[in-house]
Design brief:
It is a single chain. Helix content is 40%, strand content 21%. It has 164 residues and is α/β, with parallel strands linked by helices. It has two domains: 30 residues; 129 residues, Glutaredoxin (3-Layer(aba) Sandwich), CATH 3.40.30. α3 links the parallel β4 and β5. The protein is globular, with a radius of gyration of 17 Å. It starts with a helix and ends with a helix.
């Protein structure tokens, strides 16, 4: 067998095992952010605690102003939030400078709280490996869905069905 074919088969096998492990982890509810705390100061300077939102579904979006895909999905996410007042939304501006995060929020008209995570510690606690990452929590604070990478309005709507 050709060396390149063997290498490709091995790589695909590893990817399949990792995917199975990740799916199994998400299905048993023990994902990194299930019920995870999220506290900090918002870009507007207010204190924020995710625990205050218990009792309703929550969408948490990790982003940065310098992230191209974050900028691409921002208009759809803002419209999605406005279309779903029954859901709480929170942004986490991670790995960014405060001024740039504020400019991003202003540019896209983000009107939900955005927690500043300049040192990426919150993203680390939540197991965020790439941005944008959008996490859907049920009313009890348990992660039900996670979108890694940019999506659009249809992707947000589909994920929301997991928490309603």
């Amino acid at each position: 067998m050709n060396h390149n074919v063997v290498t490709a088969v091995v790589v695909l096998g590893i990817v399949a095992v990792v995917a199975i492990v990740l799916v199994a982890d998400r299905q048993d509810g023990s994902g990194a952010s299930g019920g995870e705390e999220l506290q900090g100061e918002t870009l507007a300077g207010a204190a924020f605690d995710l625990a205050d939102l218990r009792g309703k579904p929550v969408v948490v979006n990790f982003f940065a102003s310098w992230c191209g895909p974050c900028n691409s999905e921002a208009p759809d996410l803002v419209a999605f939030a406005k279309a779903h007042p029954e859901v709480a939304f929170v942004g986490v501006d991670t790995g960014d400078a405060l001024a740039e995060g504020r400019a991003f929020v202003e540019q896209y008209g983000v009107d939900y709280p955005v927690v500043f995570d300049g040192d990426r510690s919150l993203g680390g606690q939540w197991g965020v490996e790439g941005i944008p990452t959008t996490v859907f929590l049920d009313a009890s604070g348990v992660e039900k869905e996670r979108i890694v990478g940019a999506t659009d309005a249809a992707g947000f709507e589909e994920a929301l069905t997991s928490v309603q």
